[in-house]
Design goal:
Largest interface: A-B, 40 and 38 residues
Oligomer: homodimer
Strand content of chain A: 35-45%
């Protein structure tokens, strides 16, 4: 037992850990332009970037006001791979019906029109929350929780979900894989604990880079950290 | 937020939660003898019992002496599916190199010739332990941890592992699947978060009932709790 680290380091590592893995075709060349996960249909298979979303939340400015003080502005700590979003310096504590708390839940900015907490099943079982699997933003009839910040707390009446596994991509990557918005894909992970995650929802946008989002349970299940290859296939 | 539960209830539920799922062949009849996961090659496909192993430990009597007092005997709380083993009433706290603790880690009895802590990657990341994936008992060159009991604590110099996913079976089930001891199988889970766990190690013994053992990360990844079908296939 020699390693030392702070809680923040863990949070940040989990949140932004980026496993960049080439989808190695049998003799396929690497993308000519070398863009990491870029919309690279030309020049070979695109690089598959898999980002592991550790538990985190999105907040409205109104909820930030309650938790951090009126008019408080989130401080960007690190840009995310889709660079409109950032991990904020700020965290909140999440409390569920078993009177247990998970501290240090990272806030992702910028503020949104709804507040939403994204957990893994492991987190939710610990808190006592029956977690629905939803596309981000689809929060009607989902459970809530208690959020605690340094300046206040609030009951979030809904918005606690497991984010449905999904893959962002631009039009060239969609063309390469032969998929369109809201199609489904499977992702096979070659690792010491190999497996296939099925049914990743395809989400396309002209500006998006190719990026798979899965949660910590999904990543840990297939030991993504030690993966040697990741393959996306149309379902 | 209305449900209430105690910590113990959670531990017990996680530990012994048993998902009994028929491998439904297209028109295959249920096993004629109705044994739950019994060694039932005759009369149709065997029932696949998947048990989720939450974090737990096995201890030597010497380590029990240190943690609970000289000569202390573990109290069986619940028989496990392979009924030579039991979940004990007793738990320990596990501390890793980040000075974090996971309390309430269930002890499985009876005592063994070696002490071993089985964690999920989610647990190990929280504790700061680089977790090797090992067959139970194969603990050379594995990390250790600090164990804390009500009467003492000890440094376990090795024995912290992620147990390799595996399937127990008797000879009739092995014949049904066409596998032998130490072969590999894949398990497909049909659920709201479907997927396939590959490379389950086959372990056979004349007395064993058909039972898959996976950890909480693996179960949560594929939402095993809401699975409608589980299929075992020779790898």
């Amino acid at each position: 037992m020699s390693a030392t680290a702070t809680a923040d380091r863990d949070q940040i590592e989990s949140l932004v850990r980026s496993i960049i893995l080439k989808s190695l075709g049998a003799a396929a060349p690497a993308p000519a332009d070398g863009r990491p996960g870029g919309d690279g249909a030309a020049g070979g298979p695109p690089k598959v970037v898999v980002n592991i979303s550790a538990r985190h939340c999105h907040l409205t400015q109104e909820d930030v006001d309650v938790l951090f003080g009126k008019g408080y502005q989130l401080k960007p700590m690190k840009r995310l791979y889709q660079d409109t979003d950032f991990a904020a310096e700020e965290t909140v504590a999440v409390v569920g019906p078993r009177q247990r708390m998970i501290p240090g839940v990272r806030i992702l900015g910028p503020c949104r029109k709804f507040s939403q907490v994204e957990l893994a099943f492991t987190d939710a079982i610990s808190l006592g929350i029956e977690l629905p699997v939803r596309l981000s933003g689809d929060i009607e009839n989902t459970p809530g929780c208690l959020l605690i910040g340094p300046k206040g707390s609030l009951v979030m009446p809904k918005g606690v979900i497991r984010a449905e596994r999904h893959v962002h991509m631009g039009p060239r990557d969609a063309e390469y894989y032969g998929v369109k918005h809201l199609d489904r894909m499977n992702m096979r992970v070659d690792s010491p604990c190999p497996g296939t995650l099925e049914g990743l929802l395809v989400r396309t946008h002209p500006d998006w880079k190719l990026e798979v989002h899965i949660d910590t349970d999904e990543a840990n299940s297939c030991d993504l950290t030690h993966a040697t290859n990741v393959t996306l296939i149309k379902a």
